[in-house]
Amino acid sequence: MDGKSLSSFSMGKSAQEKGLPYVPECYVIPTSQRASLTPDVVTVPTIDFGRLKKGPDERALVIGDVRTACRQLGFFQIENHGIRQTVLDEALSSATEFFKLPVSEKAKFMSNDVHGPVRYGTSLKDGLDKIQFWRVFLKHYAHPLADWIKYWPNNPCNYRETMGKYCSEVKKLSMEITEAITESLGIGPTYISKKMEDGMQVITVNCYPPCPNPEIALGLPPHSDYSCLTILLQSSPGLEIMHTGDNKWKQVPQLHGALQVHVGDHFEVLSNGLYKSGVHRVTLNSDRTRISIASLHSLGLEEKMGTANELESEENPGRYKESSFKDFLNFLDNNDLAEGKTFINTLKVDENK
Ligand code: OGA
Ligand code: NI
Q1: How many angstroms separate the alpha carbon of residue 67 from the centre of ligand 1?
Q2: Ligand 1 centroid to 314 CA: how many Å?
Q3: Most C-beta atoms within 10 A of its C-beta, which of 32, 185, 188, 249?
Q4: What is the DSSP string of 201-237?
Q5: What are the residue boundaries of the Fe2OG dioxygenase domain, all occurrences included (predicted)?
């Protein structure tokens, strides 16, 4: 196997999709990194985006809440985001239908080429990484929609329509969040809006089938997202964030209709470390399939993200090297994420900070 294209050797071999009654050795996580089946639940800052448009005083309060959440957790959730519930529900249900298809149908999209615009896989890098994860995914580029939608699955037959609708609404929302975040950094709402508008949107549709021993495997290992920001829609709980207050993993509760927002690595860079890209992971359960749709928003593929000059000073010099989304893909190509090396650490001028 050349590591880029997958031979029929690994097709249809994934334990998650076979519904095995046990967890194979290659999915077993070291004891110290295992998840609790009864995790603490985190109080997630919940921001009512409807208030952003209710006049300058109200907006200033919301921007203050965004700033606090980004500084403390690198994570918040949004209600009143303006995307109709049916759009959310239909995106989740066509994702569910896609994963129910026979492996032979999904395998048409199978690839370990991290640069590919559409790919299906059954761990981080199928068959290559030392520890596998109890996850199946479909990733695809989504902006500009007209350029990419033709490469997406057309089985189930409404996949393109329902996912396309969700993606374009989420893209609009990502612009409002970007504006709120740069405003909250004191550099104004339009600081990078043009570059973000023309930037990348990568969708990861995740499926976590029931796991016979959820206490010894993970759906996704601890990581931060390589985006500027990520918007997540989940069908049920399973996402955990590292709580910076007491360094403990805590579960994000389900709030019907809300969307979760992660600060990604590139907003950490933009903010000179004032905002932290939040570390998160996914835990499993033994009775139901969990579906999530992560929408990662970044600048253009080769556009470099650096720290805002306004946020650097003599006392507070720049702490990060600039990098592009493509630089991240190259990093991913050459590293095994399960081994704990992170992209954001490679960007730090002083790795110990
Ligand atoms: C991701 C991710 C969380 C989830 O795809 O980067 O963190 O709940 N997903 O699936
Ligand atoms: Ni993530």
Answers
A1: 23
A2: 37
A3: 185
A4: EEEEEEEE---S-TTT--SEEEE--SSSEEEEEESSS
A5: 196-299
Atom of ligand 1 minimally distant from the CA of 208: 10
Distance CA 118, CA 203 (A): 9
Question: With bands split at pLDDT 50, 70 and 90, how would you rate the model's confidence at 77?
Answer: very high
- Rounded (to 5) percent helix, strand, coil in the chain: 35, 20, 45
Q: What is the DSSP letter of 323?
A: B
DSSP state for residue 309 in the 8-state scheme: G
Atom 5 (ligand 1) nearest CA = 294
Q: Are 324 and 299 in contact (CB under 8 A)?
A: yes
Q: What is the pLDDT of residues 82-139, one digit of tens each?
A: 999 999 999 999 999 999 999 889 989 988 777 788 999 887 665 566 788 999 999 9
CA terminus-to-terminus distance, the chain? 39
Q: What CATH number is given for 34-347 in this structure? A: 2.60.120.330
